[in-house]
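Subject: ELMO domain-containing protein structure
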Amino acid sequence: MSTPVTVHHDKSNVLCNVDVAQPIEKIIKTLCIEQFNIQEPAALYALRLLDTDELITDENLRRKIKENERLKLVSSPLIEAAEICEKLGSNDDRVLKLATFSLQKYIKEVEFADEFLKRNGLKSLIDIINNSSGNTLAYALTSMQNLMEHDHGWEDLGFDFINKVINILVKQTLVNICRPATAIIIKLATADKNSTTSAIKTYGFDVLHDAMIKQPNFFSTLVQRLSSADYVLCSNSLCLINALMRHVTDHHWESFMDMMIKLKVRKAVALLMNGVHGDELSKHLLEFQSLFVRQAYRWKRTQVSLHIPSHKAMLEELWSKANLPEEGGKWRKIGFATEAPKWEIQRVGYLGLENMHGFMKKDIDDYQKTILEQHNRPAERRCPFAKTSIEVTELLCDYWDVSTGYTTSTSFQPLLLAFEKIHYITVKSFFRLWNEMEATVDDFPKVSALVRSQLKFALRDEATKQLYEFEKDMLEVEYKVIRDRQLKELELGDDLLSKTPVRNLRSRLYTESYEFVKNQRIKCLLIGDWFQITTTTNVPLNSTTNLGKKTMINKKWRFYRLSPNLKFLHYSDFPEKTFIRDGIEDLPERIDLSLVTDIMTGPSPQIASTIGSPPKAISKHLSTNIIITNNNLSQDLTFSLMSGPDTVLTEFIARDYTQYSEWTDGLNMLFDKNINSKDTAEYIHILTEIGVKVKLLDLSGEKVEIPQNIEVPNKLPIIGTGGSGFYYDDPFS
């Protein structure tokens, strides 16, 4: 299996044949002795690609060394690590800058990283981060960021280092310094004991908390950088905010969310949604949107208690600002049905209390006017403020999937992030329609249904809709127009679907549908499937007499299957589709899913570069190269498992959109990430709606009228002799 190549060493180069079936150590030894007359041990040398400087190892040997490939014989990672570690101890700024610059590249290689760590290089790198500035600091931070892409070596960085990086992130303004500093904190935040993406689990929110508190401007700096002109810095800052939201512990959850509200993070993110953004930033924006839904769900599930000072204070302020006399009870006067408000508000929990209190705080005079106006009306004509606020919160939760805590939206919902403002406007709309309908207490469900209809209309095209447009639709559209539209909707759907028990049923069935689809998608991974590839190895038939002739060894198919413990993706390559036994015995190769940090849709840089040429970089975890031979292949059916921003663990080219949807959504659901497929989101919606309609068959009775009074005979007649027989209705009698 000899392959002709050109090998460069120092200032010379030779044409020779390399047997790719041999271990890399033996190939290097042969080159040193036979081609360059080097007497030193082969362990001191390594082979790299001349063009990309990529290290040749046993894992990538067959994929990287092609016919007429250009290679170079250089110092091994052992020597390179020793040289760089020595230079990192230099007092010469120029030497230090060059060493850290080279370190950024070499430390990505696990062979170099292992030697670097053995020589205590991590301590030197941390010292440089603590004491350097400018480009040297930027290179050192990037080197640390790249080191943290490995699954070992950074288990115990210490509080002083964490505090230093956070200090750098806050006080430095150079983009090339802030980018890697932010990326380092992201890695630390996600490396907690519950992490599914990191092999190291010794950090997390609690470890970072003290260092973040020591820098009072830390969070405000992150929020400011969401408006940065630098795309990567903006994207990294949002990614860090998401990581902190996702990994914040229960102990710090309330204070962290309060701080996010004070810094108006949601407003900053909503502004980003209205701007121009690439795929990476879009992914982070959708994740923030999903995390906010989970946050709101947790608030909704948090029960209001008079034993919690903040809860009690909000309720008392709602009463005191109403400016009404307390004689004869107080809570009914502001719209509760009883004098025990906490029980009524449990339906929407702390989220409902916060919205109600927010309505009052936004305009106290208007709040007092609203309460007084209703108080002065006859009891049957009053629109109860508290009940209205609770109902509106429920309507919004239903619309935005807050009631389930899951969202499958693949489009931006900036108005969701303005939840309190939408609540305020919708409550005002509720009172307006109540007045225009001249409603009574018994008409409350009808007004609610009308508001729901208008809310759905006003939130159409939400991704591009501005708040003032929503306000205009809710507060200025004539009652007759709203009513006519609702009547048309009722022609298409039963009004039963808008009732509270049915809304609760839909929320439960949505959760069940999501879990059902999740299990189905993961089951697809457990069953496994074929993906087409083409791997080519060139073998000269006769290196002297048949120069230029070659045999093509094609393995056109790869079979993937998820391991039963859901921790590894097993695979193997085959020249044609064949029977694969159950289990993983036929699939010796595997990918550790704890290394996966992202699922990238569309062609990866490696796939893009392989159309006509070998890929530039691919992870050591793959033993087979993937070369696309069809230039017309639809890019929409391509996706990759990523380990860090630059390393592709494996790439998939689905045969059709069904397979693409099953595997991308299955992997995303396995990692508890957002689904990408609109078809899957629609599938979950359809399952939910079918479930609702099936359940409602027991409630609606197909609209058959059931008589209120049924006459039952006092004594059943006896048929037959001996007093035995049956009683039945004879239709012919």
